[in-house]
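Input sequence (167 aa), recorded before submission:
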Amino acid sequence: MTDDAPDSLIPYDEIVQEALRAVVGRVLGEIQNNGSQLPGNHHFYITFKTGAPGVSIPLHLRERFPDEMTIVLQNKFWDLGVDEEGFTVGLSFNQMPAKLDIPYSAITAFVDPAVDFGLQFQATVTDMAPETHEDAENDIPSDTGSDGAAGADDGSNVVTVDFGRKK
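Predicted structure, token format:
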């Protein structure tokens, strides 16, 4: 494109982001319909903005992760509930149970390292730089195998959608 291209009156970037977030909802819906059992070695890393509208997490987690948090859905999760707006899940943090409500609009990344699949989303809450915080660690077994977090960050099969706008 050239610098002379007109601004679009159609919000393509928003439409694509919404469609990609629907992928997350469909995947989680499939898991819910399967009795919350993950097939094979599938497991999910889901990163979301803790301050996004509609996010409900315990206060101690919001204080520990004031900007962004990553959860792992693998072995120890319960009460997965999925609807058109987001999902609810029970997880354990330092052996303390917690219920999290996360709208799809708050999600910034979804990764299934078992099959090198990942999606990254534009932040919809703020464009501020995230504050530094500890890495999220909910209770996952130490024997996660070679498909652990190290493989999730290599960028393979990650779809990133970033539409630039003229200034």
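Checked by second reader. The chain has one domain: 12-126+135-140+148-160.
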